Amino acid sequence: MNRTILRLLFVFAFGATSACAGELIDFRDTTTSWSDVRALASNEHKLILIDAYTDWCSWCKVMDRETFTDTAVAKFINDRFVPVRYEMETGFGAIMAAKYRVNGFPTFLIFTPDGKLVYRILGYLKPKEYLDELSNALNPGKQEHLTGISPDLEPGFPRFYLQSFLKKGVRKRPDTSVVLAFLGERADLSSEIAWSVMFRFSYLLTQPYKDYFFKNYDRLKSLYGANDVGSVASTFLAADLNAAIKANDPGKLEEVIASSARYLNEPEGDLRLAYTLRFDQETERWKAYAGLIDSTRKSANPPDPNVINNYSWAIYEHCPDKEIVSRAVVWMSEAVVQSPSYMLLDTYAALLFKSGDLKKAKEYAETAIEAGKKEKQDFQETQELLKNINAAIEKKL
Predict the structure, then answer these.
(1) Cα 54 to chain center, whole Å?
(2) Where are the domains of the chain?
(3) Which among 317, 359, 310, 353 has a CA at the least distance from the CA of 331?
(4) Which end of the chain is more exposed for a tag (fewer CB within 10 A), N or C?
(5) pTM of the entire structure?
(6) Over 70: is that where the pLDDT of 5 sits?
(7) How many angstroms separate the CA atoms of 342 and 336, rounded?
């Protein structure tokens, strides 16, 4: 399923990066200055690849473990890029995050030697998918040349904006009134500073700003690129989807699907699937929800195990229908064979417990904990699940 669509349904999961990627890829030390990185890229006639990560990003860790350890990926990066990693909530990384509006992790920013952003890759990708994206980044015909981004790394962003990119504990989110007051004083909402504030706090914007955005959609896209405007459009359209859900109105759902097909520039069939799944979940149409998932699993382009995991977790958390839970157990039994990671094993164990298969639930909860230890994940919730499983087993004895 397309990444833009997934933004409407799921939030990235996060955790720490590992060192294994650095064993194959020649990432420059994060203390290397930006000017030195650019000079090196200029001397070697290469583009710059920034791995933008945070200390809490679990998908960054999966990227390290499953993609950056691939020898073909490592060779491609070392041969064609000057790679560098920045932790994006401290120091220079936080400045880069604010400047280039990095909202999710991992994100990969690709620059020319003179410091112009020309490509952006979002989220975890498997080796082949990542190589395809890196190849696109090298293709001048697929690069973006965004005239709205100034060469100044610190063009005068307001303090409340910069503070929102810092680590938890020092990070601060402004009140709606602060954001609206700031934007109300801007003569040009398409300026880099105004747009950055609108982008970062799009979830706080009122109808006049939404109207401005859609009226100026094409111009903003030319200034700041498809990723930026797609993210803001996703936020606004997600709000419309929530309104359709709250009203339990299939007609409004159709309107959101039509608008999304225009502004997200995604295939309407994919949008219809994603939006309808969310609508069915929130309105508790669980039979329809499961039916759609079964259909897409049998399609020519079935969702990967991580997406199935997200679908199934929603059933574990919210669906009381035992028959639907049993169907989710089947989905996850296949998913963990394809990808026996901690997150998927944990979901499978939880669903087995909910279905009443205590023996198998215990087995997979223990397997999930072992996987969590190897992956350096926080598996405390799985330990609690295992306690509940053991208590249920003892009660039956």
Answers:
(1) 13
(2) 3-145, 161-283, 299-397
(3) 310
(4) C
(5) 0.73
(6) no
(7) 9
Kindly state the DSSP code that residue 202 receives in the 8-state scheme.
G
The token duo for 301 is: 């382009």
- 299-397 topology per CATH: 1.25.40
The model's pLDDT over 176-235, given as tens digits with 9 standing for 90+, comes to: 999 999 999 999 999 999 999 999 999 999 999 999 999 999 999 999 999 999 999 999
What average pLDDT score do residues 147-165 get? 96
* Cβ proximity of 328 and 316 under 8 Å: yes
Reported as type and span, the H/E element at residue 83 is strand 81-87
The closest alpha carbon to 205, from 186, 223, 224, belongs to 186
Measured between alpha carbons, how far is 357 from 325 in angstroms, rounded to an integer?
Answer: 11
Full DSSP string of 219-244: HHHHHHHHHHHHHHHHHHHHHHHHHH
What are the residues facing 28 on neighbouring strands? 84
- More confident call, 12 vs 279: 279
Token duo for residue 75: 């060779």
Q: Which superfamily does CATH assign the domain made up of 3-145 to?
A: Glutaredoxin (3.40.30.10)
Residue 29 confidence (pLDDT):
75
275 and 257 Cβ atoms separated by less than 8 Å: yes
Q: Can you tell me the distance from the alpha carbon of 163 to that of 173, in angstroms, rounded to the nearest whole number?
A: 7
Q: What angle do CA 100, 104, 108 make, to 5 degrees?
A: 60
How far is 218 from 62, CA to CA, in rounded Å?
A: 35
